[in-house]
Amino acid sequence: MNTPLEREFHGPNLGYVLDLYERYQRDPNAVDEATRKLFEGWQPSEVEAGTPSQVDFQALIGTVHLAQAIRSHGYLAATLDPLGKSPIGDPLLTPEFHHLRPEDLHTLPASLVGLRSQQSAENAYQAIETLRSIYSGKIGYDYSHIRIPEERDWLYQAAETGRFRPPQQPLDEDKLLERLTRVEALELFLHRLYPGKTRFSIEGLDMLIPMLDEMVSAAARASVCAILIGMAHRGRLNALAHVLQKPYDQIFAEFKDPQGRATTWDELGWTGDVKYHMGGYKSPMQGQKVDLIIRMPANPSHLELVDPFILGMARAADEKVDHAGAPQFFKNASLPILIHGDASFPGQGIVSETLNLSRLPGYSTGGSLHLIANNQLGFTATDEELRSTLHASDLAEGFEMPVILVNADNPPACIEAARTAFAYRQEFHKDFVVNLIGYRRYGHNEGDEPRFTQPVMYQMIDNHPTVRQLWASKTEAKDQAEEILQERLSELQAVNERLDAEKELDEPVPQPPPRGAAKKVKTSIPLKRLKELNQSLLEFPEDFHLNPKLKKSVERRRKLLEKSSSEVDWVTAEELAFASILEDGIPIRLTGEDSARGTFSQRHAVFYDVQDNHKYLPLQNIH
After folding, report:
1. What is the DSSP track for 175-231?
2. Is residue 97 pLDDT above 70, yes or no?
3. Which residues pair with 608 in a beta bridge?
4. Which three-class secondary structure state does DSSP give residue 117?
5. Do 184 and 485 touch, CB atoms closer than 8 A?
6. Residue 274, pLDDT above cutoff 50
7. CB 76 within 8 A of CB 137
8. 139-142 and 403-407: which strand pairing?
9. What percent of the residues of the chain are helix, what percent strand, and what percent coil, each to the nearest 5?
10. Which string of DSSP letters, residue by residue, matches 554-611?
């Protein structure tokens, strides 16, 4: 007898049912009672035309498992290294591991694979090959650690349907070439004009700039108000010039260094608060200007130190605190983008501490985007010398963050990664990590000789074309690519020739406040007002059930200011100080794992109802 099982279950789910049925055939007690009753009146039919009359359950189950393995571990066979290093692969990805023969896959139906792609497949073999082209190409999707089914399904659906890559979401090839040309031209010009001067070139990871462009454009369309970018020095100058629109003449003036200042002024924190002009290589809003603040705070040579600062700034931008009571949180007010190094991401503890804050109440930002600028070297250390994990991004798996690993020499894959990351963030308001795998054209800095420690790698790099050259060879403008590059170099030369370095470096320095200003500020509060604030802090809703052990201390506090000779304890003084500041309309953010109660139960800024554990915050209810 045939039931609707085969209509309700397909792909991996049907494989699971067939697996259970095979166990049931061997031993009916191997499955639960409900499943036994179901199988007593059911047996699998010939799944589709072309399936052998005697169904090979081992082949059916093997096909389902192979498809699942490719989805989960296909990235291990993806070609991610622009320099040609072979992927490690995994036996799970081979038909032989699942006891499959080519003829098995040719005779089995494509529906077993559960392919979400619109591409048609005549049999399981074609469906498996389609799946392999998606998950083991020049982009790797590391999603199997995502625990929540809705998120996991969304991610696999996006990968298999190709919703974020051409042709479904077009890519303007000529504008992308123009963007890559500007990125490369700046680096070439600085290298020729100031050889040996430190700039921490972006070359080898040039696609970082178009990926940032894509994220900024998407944020503007989504009405995000502020983008906060945290990054170390690798590629910083190029990001300042082409994402934050720092003028070329100011960059060149810093390199001329007429007064013997630092070679570059990254440390002084040029932030470039600008209205981002929608143009670049993609103009989704027909070139109109959008009010979008982009900030890149100063960051010292501690690389990842800026991470928690960026998230703190984002959280501040996400909260509305111009009213009494609890702040209002807006998930889409800001977009934090953190650009990490491949050595520092797993190597510096501040990264894991920051990732751990991503979904905590009081710290979450509606989702951060993480880009690992992976040049496969940490100063002189190779991957094997600087981390214990396979990939630099593996740390993110422990925090259930989706990861895309992408070859930096494949522009369409890079743009797809940026689009997917932003869309996921908007859909689920969680972090996303993109591991952009490229190389480093020069040493750690331009004065370093990397061939001392990586001679073979740099032989390959010396002969390796730039991503601009690779992309140009695939576009209709390939014959004009070098001419376009020379035009951009000429434009930079013209800027340099008319440069007045002294004028460009004339930056205003903030003036310190007059000496003794703090002593002149009046901070006293009338006793009458202190008493009113104290009583307000000790009032509770009628339906609130206070812990009996706290009632005595609350009653003692009520009478504390009745006598002029009363001694006020530190905790009461602190809470009254907070209350007076809040009353003046100045918000206070107090965070930390013990900030609500105090480490030794002294503060009690938050009270918990003993019956249902709901919170009451007196400082948010001052009247």
Report:
1. HHHHHHHHHHHHHHHHHHHSTT------TT-TTHHHHHHHHHHHHHHTT--EEEEEE
2. yes
3. 615
4. coil
5. yes
6. no
7. no
8. antiparallel
9. 45, 10, 45
10. HHHHHTTTSSTTPPPPHHHHHHHHHHHHHHTT------STTTTT-TTS---SSEE-TT
Take residue 455 and report the two structure tokens written for it. Answer: 């001679």
HSE-CB of 32 using CA atoms within 13 angstroms: 2
Which run of H or of E encompasses 369?
strand 369-374
Collapse the DSSP code of 433 into the 3-class scheme (helix H, G, I; strand E, B; otherwise coil) and give the result.
strand
Do residues 86 and 75 make contact, with C-beta atoms less than 8 angstroms apart?
Answer: no
Residue 608 CB contacts under 8 Å (≥ 6 apart), including other chains:
547, 614, 615, 616
Which pLDDT band, with edges at 50, 70 and 90, does 284 fall under?
A: very low
CB contact at 8 A, 435 and 345: no
Q: Report the C-alpha gap between 178 and 485 in whole angstroms.
A: 9
Contact 64, 100 (CB under 8 A): no
The amino acid sitting at 400 is E
In this structure, are residues 566 and 560 in contact, taking their beta carbons and an 8 Å threshold?
yes
3-class secondary structure, 165: coil
**Number of neighbours of residue 602 by Cβ within 10 angstroms:** 12
What would the 3-class secondary structure string for 514-558 be? CCCCHHHCCCCCCHHHHHHHHHHHCCCCCCCCCCHHHHHHHHHHH
| Each residue's pLDDT tens digit, 441-496 | 998 888 889 999 999 999 999 999 999 999 999 998 888 999 999 999 999 999 99
- Which residue in 157, 298, 312, 155 sits closest to 236, CA to CA? 298
For the chain, the average pLDDT equals 87
Structure tokens that stand for 338 in this block: 């953190």
Strand-pair partners of 141: 404
The count of other CB atoms within 10 Å of the CB of residue 186 is 23
| pLDDT tens sequence across 349-359 | 999 999 999 99
Counting every residue written for the chain, the total comes to 623
223 Ramachandran zone, left/alpha/beta (phi>0; psi -120 to 50): left
Pinpoint the alpha helices (H) of 112-197.
124-135, 149-161, 173-193
C-alpha 533/C-alpha 526 separation (Å) is 11
Contact in structure between 141 and 445 (CB atoms under 8 Å): no
pLDDT at 54 over 60: no
Q: What tokens does 215 get?
A: 């994220």
CA distance 313 to 368: 12
Q: H helices of 47-143, where?
A: 57-73, 102-107, 124-135
The amino acid present at 371, given as its one-letter code, is L
Sign of the Cα torsion 530, 535, 538, 541 reads: negative
pLDDT digits (tens, 9 = 90+) for 203-219: 999 999 999 999 999 99
Are the CB atoms for 329 and 367 separated by under 8 Å?
no
Is the backbone peptide bond immediately before 167 cis, with ω within 30 degrees of 0?
Answer: yes
Backbone CA torsion sign across 103, 106, 110, 114: positive
Could you give the 3-state DSSP secondary structure of residue 87? coil
In whole angstroms, give the CA distance from residue 435 to residue 468.
Answer: 20
Task: Tell me the sheet residues that pair with 432.
Answer: 369
Tracing tokens 């014959």 back to the chain, one arrives at 479
Number of Cβ atoms within 10 Å of the Cβ of 84: 8
d(CA 4, CA 24): 19
